[in-house]
Amino acid sequence: MKRFTTLLLVAACAGLLALPQPAAADVQFGIKAGANMAKPTGADAQDPLATLKSKVGFTGGIFLAFNFGRVVTIQSEVLYTMKGATYEALDDTYTDKLYADYIEIPLLLKLRIPTPVVQPFVFAGPTVGFKLKEKWESNGEEVPLGEAILKNNDYGAIFGAGLNVGRNFMIDVRYSLGLQKVISTFEGDVEPDFKNGVWSASIGIAF
Predict the structure, then answer these.
(1) How many Å apart are CA 167 and CA 50, to the nearest integer?
(2) How far is Cα 108 from Cα 123, in angstroms, rounded to an integer?
(3) Residues 93 and 107: beta-carbon distance below 8 Å
(4) In this predicted model, what pLDDT tens digit does every residue of 49-105 receive, in sequence order?
(5) Using CA atoms, how far apart are residues 191 and 181, in angstroms rounded to an integer?
């Protein structure tokens, strides 16, 4: 599944870049930045002895949008995004934090309502992520990692909505639903059901 999703993104991006000039006449390049609120999902993300808290972090990067008519846009993005979680023991004996930073590449289909000045839109599409680094803290001190806790790659689906303000400014809110079990170190035959889940809000400027 992961290999198929990666190949799909690469093929789609290559196909978009190969479009003839008339079909790709309305192309926008832009930058965007915002904030994440990450909280893992899955049956094993919950700990009955601890409270799971979200990690708030940064997200930002670049995008390339191909506008087909007044309604349809296909948008590719390359984003730096921060994910992770905090576990606080119910008896206050420990606080563990597991953080990871990723380069994430979504490919989104956007549908716009062609109203004047402000245009609402919805969007969805697949995404793949590549881990840059991870960090584990226990009671405020960094724990050296003999081996990685999280896998190097991730994939999932993105759903969201937003507003275009004029032609050059946009805001959006999205949820990134991780479909990959991301724990790489485990004992036994059953892989832990621990996936990334992230709410994001961002502001973009198109050129």
Answers:
(1) 47
(2) 6
(3) no
(4) 899 999 999 999 999 999 999 999 999 999 999 999 999 999 889 999 999 999 999
(5) 7
CA distance 51 to 182: 20
Phi, psi of 10 (to 5 degrees): -60, -45
Amino acid sitting at position 62: I
DSSP per residue, 42-108: STTS--TTEEEEEEEEEEEEEEEEEEETTTEEEEEEEEEEEEEEEEEETTSS-EEEEEEEEEEEEEE
3-state secondary structure of 180: coil
CATH fold, domain 2-206, is Porin (2.40.160)
Query: What are the residue boundaries of the structural domains of the chain, listed by start?
Result: 2-206
The position carrying tokens 């984003």 is: 79
Q: What are phi and psi of 2, to 5 degrees?
A: -65, -45
Q: Tokens standing for 178?
A: 């991780």
The helix (run of H) or strand (run of E) holding residue 8 is helix 2-17
How many Å is the maximal CA-CA distance in the chain? 64
Give the pLDDT band of residue 4 (cuts 50, 70, 90): very low
Q: How many CA atoms lie within 13 A of 168 on its CB side?
A: 1
